[in-house]
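Hello again, I could really use a second opinion on something today. My current little project is about how a certain protein chain folds up. You're getting the sequence in one-letter code plus the fold written as tokens. Here's the protein in full, and shout if anything looks odd to you:
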Amino acid sequence: MSDAPPPRRRRKIPLSADRIAAEAMAMVDHDGYGALSFRALAKRLGCEAMSLYHYFPSKAHLTDAMVSICLAETPIPADDLPHRDRLRRFAFAYRDTVLRHPGFAQILVTHRLNHRDGLSFLERATALFDAPGLSIARQAHLFRVMSYYLTGAAIDEALGYARGPGAAEPVPGEDARRDFPRITAFGAHFGPDSHLPIFEAGLDLILDWIEAEMQAARDA
């Protein structure tokens, strides 16, 4: 007869809204948003799918919670920093969040952010464009232009032009180099190593313009 002690029962981690949302995000990061379902998520959590509905009545509610996770990972810089630094740090924070969750990127950048966490985030983000003499209309325009840039840049880096659908019969590489030399030459400069310097260059152009707008408003 063995004197070995009986195996210890593994303690079951209780469910919570935070745990479910965090596990859903991890699943999407690994497998993409299309793989997310309550049944698959419940399997990862070791529970019944119906248990999840107690916390999230629908996938849309769970998606809102995942958006909130991303927003919490995107800090709004303190207002004691110079204006340009605040905008620059915010831009990089947003980009970092999108790149950290590529499987969720398309959802994040197209979500209307009209739940409470989203509106709170937007209220603080739009305040980055407040400046003496600058009308609300002009602040809105500046915010919108920067949003266009951040959304486009982040989604392109996270999902990538190279990962998009291609032609049914793509032009062979040798033919492309011969018949389309210019775009072939451009392609050598579109790789991952170029993403950061291109992002910085574009961001600096936008920040130059925003600074000029704010200075003009102060001088008016």
